[in-house]
Write a structure and sequence with these properties.
Number of domains: 2
Number of strands: 16
Radius of gyration: 26 Å
Helix content: 40-55%
Shape: globular
Structural class: alpha+beta
Order of helices and strands: EHHHHEEEEEEEEEHHHEHEEHHEEEH
Strand order of the largest sheet: 2-6-7-1-5-4-3
Distance between the termini: 24 Å
Strand content: 15-25%
Largest sheet: 7 strands, antiparallel
């Protein structure tokens, strides 16, 4: 079992400068490799360049530019080239599946914020001794950096990554560990229905209110972004002190909302895993749900468009993003795996329109957002509770039908 750990680093001024240079040089390597692939494809011969060819050129690149490329870990540079190779693999996969592909783009220095080390001990070393009150991590070209280790790392450290978020630096570890002991069985099962008005409703009639962290911080974010918009767009090195403060303020507000959303998702998922042995949820296609509506050209007036509800859909998309369903489901699955619980997804179609008493399915059964009223048997309940109950029953039926 692989588990990730994330700790805040406390670098010195010189170490902060060296970490920034490491990100800059890896960004330059990434962009140079991307440019080489673009030039090779545009050549009349249509040459295809793969990761192995570019990795084989690393020794020459390091020898040619020892001050910028030769000072960093060879394996971390290989990991940067693998990241580019994965971006191209995803690009070609989207083409084959008929999706709209996005060609890999060049990265700006401010947008390249992670360097990976594929193996602990190769260019990096996680140094955590039980009797030493100060934990450090060593990076080639940077030195030993102090780490605020707030919890013990269980298992053998496999990979190490450096991540920059605003003005803060983090180290991310992945450790291989044995499967933990499962939690005691509770004999309880539950289905959950994710929503906007309430974050989720369960099949037992319980509700978790939506915190709406993004909406609560909207006014402060709007004011900070308006202040930032007063400065002309410049490169990071050309920004004034006031411009840098405005950028940091916007980034800090977004970071706070993200941390609040993660905290709520972790606590909600932990409560579900502790209380239930089996949890069923809707198999939501969040990316499709948050797509903008297609424009509707007016056939009578060429060059003009008919109303397509884009404004109201944008508000719904913001609410879905603020709820953070995708992050919550990922955390729920991870915690369930550690606790020995079972989490399954079901088809969400008609889950809030099907009567749990008689099975009648109709659009008219849901006359309002929160109200369910069966037109056949007269059953009335909260629509989200009905959806959660149908999700649970559908998953239990499928699990019993599957061969052992």
């Amino acid at each position: 079992m692989i588990r990730a750990y994330r700790f805040l680093m406390r670098p010195t001024v010189r170490q902060t400068q060296a970490l920034g240079e490491m990100l800059r040089d890896h960004c330059s390597l990434y962009n140079g490799a991307l440019q080489e692939r673009r030039d090779a494809y545009r050549h009349p011969s249509k040459t295809s360049i793969k990761y192995g060819m570019q990795s084989g050129q690393l020794r020459e690149i390091r020898a040619f530019d020892p001050e910028r490329q030769g000072r960093w870990s060879f394996s971390s540079q290989q990991a940067t080239l693998r990241r580019l190779d994965k971006a191209f693999a995803a690009f070609f996969r989207r083409i084959k599946s008929g999706e709209t592909p996005g060609y890999p783009r060049f990265r700006g220095v401010n947008w390249f914020d992670t360097v990976d080390f594929p193996k602990d001990g190769d260019g990096c070393r996680w140094d955590s001794t039980p009797h030493d009150p100060v934990t450090r991590v060593r990076f080639q070209g940077v030195g030993h950096v102090k780490v605020n280790q707030h919890r013990a790392v269980v298992g053998k450290v496999k990979t190490v990554s450096v991540k920059r978020e605003g003005r803060k630096w983090f180290v991310v570890l992945t450790a291989e560990q044995d499967q933990p002991e499962p939690l005691p069985a509770t004999g309880s099962v539950a289905g959950i229905d994710l929503g906007i008005a309430s974050f989720l409703a369960d099949s037992n009639g319980g509700f978790v209110e939506s915190p709406r962290h993004g909406r609560r911080a909207a006014k402060r974010l709007e004011a900070a972004q308006q202040e930032l918009s007063r400065f002309p767009r410049r490169k990071a090195k050309d920004r004034t002190r006031n411009h840098q403060r405005a950028v940091a303020k916007v980034a800090g507000l977004h970071g706070k909302v993200r941390r609040q959303r993660l905290d709520h998702a972790h606590k909600t998922a932990l409560d579900l895993v502790r209380e239930h042995d089996f949890i069923a949820h809707e198999d939501l296609k969040i990316r499709n749900m948050t797509k903008a509506p297609s424009p509707k050209p007016d056939p009578d007036q060429p060059g003009t468009f008919l109303p397509n509800g884009a404004a109201s859909k944008a508000g719904l998309n913001r609410s879905i993003a603020d709820a953070g369903w995708g992050v919550f489901l990922a955390i729920l699955n991870a915690k369930a795996e550690s606790a020995g619980r079972e989490v399954m997804a079901v088809d969400p179609r008609n889950t809030s329109r099907r009567c749990p008493e008689c099975g009648h399915t109709a659009k008219e059964n849901r006359p309002a957002q929160e109200k369910f009223h069966c037109q056949q048997c007269g059953h009335q309940a909260h629509a989200d509770t009905v959806g959660a109950l149908n999700v649970l029953r559908a998953r239990l039926v499928r699990r019993e039908a599957q061969p052992a």
